[in-house]
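This part of the workshop introduces the protein records we will be handling. Getting from the letters to the tokens is the skill we practise here. The record below serves as our worked example for the rest of this section.

…
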Amino acid sequence: MTTETRTERTPHAFAPVRIAAGPAFELIAQLSAFTSGPARASLESGKPWIREVRDLAGPELIRGVERWSISVYGELASVVLEAGPPFRIDRFARHLRAMKPTLLWQRLLGAESAPNRAMVSRGAYDRAIAGDAVARAEIIESQGANAPARLSLERLLATPPPLVQAELAALLDTWARRVYPTFGPGAMMLVDRDVEAKEALFADTTPREAIRIATNGVDLDPGTWAAEIVVVPTVALRPFIVPIEWRSTALILCSVADEAFDDDPAAPPRRLVQVTTALGDALRLRVMRELAAGELTASELADRLGVDRTSLHHHLGILRSAGLVTVRAEGVHSWRYAVREGGVAGAASALTGYLQQPHD
């Protein structure tokens, strides 16, 4: 199933929302997940998935995928969207190859993002595209949130656009042939199930609150630049979320809901298992206690608890995926976390309901 649904602009002027899903998006999610660096250990698909991907892909393809950051693959999702429904992989690949290399290169650089342009001096992207070293350094500094992102930007800026296009097209073709067939069909069954639930959610809830629910606690405020928001549920990225700003579109690669996996009525709900797992860790309980007193950034939490920030991000991802914390953007690379209202109480209610569920 491929889909594209819309909601109309609401009285409070929040941008209209549509849901988009299809195999090409899931392929992008697989690439984004596998190149996620240290965060890869937090993927809900786990180490067996990583090992199987490595076996299927082979070392050369893995090295090629890891050359680029998650932001580059995220930008490719905008190419999928531009290619249009039904968001098939072959259609996406043809569109990618048909693009002018310089335009694709600029897209991957983030030059079509209004928030990115607002972060740098006027005309910095145009100067960087023309080869200005100072402007290029400015863009790397503004967008390079971590070492892999900076390295990927440096590679992108140092590689001629036709070579970038040819390399990515070859990566996509090889991944689609070797890796996607093993995981894609099963993932799309879950995505189809999730799309139906999200359609009902967006029909009955305000867009902002629906996005908060659909992303497991992300409070999105795209600002005045976004004319529309596109929500793309994926399986491979669980529990991560990748936001992309493309022209006037805010594109969100997010996780399918836990309920999409719940097809055994006798099994405990997946969300309940996630909550009990999330709370069964001493550090995560300390995080919850700190956040109960008010919002904090990851850096503030790390300082208070005396732990490494990278490790803390892993734990915050688990808590958010379990529906126990919310997160909202503060600036471009800073996020503030808080205890999600009703999260713990809802978990307790779900546990009680499961324990009291009649036996067949």
Observations:
- Residues 180-204 form the longest helix (25 residues).
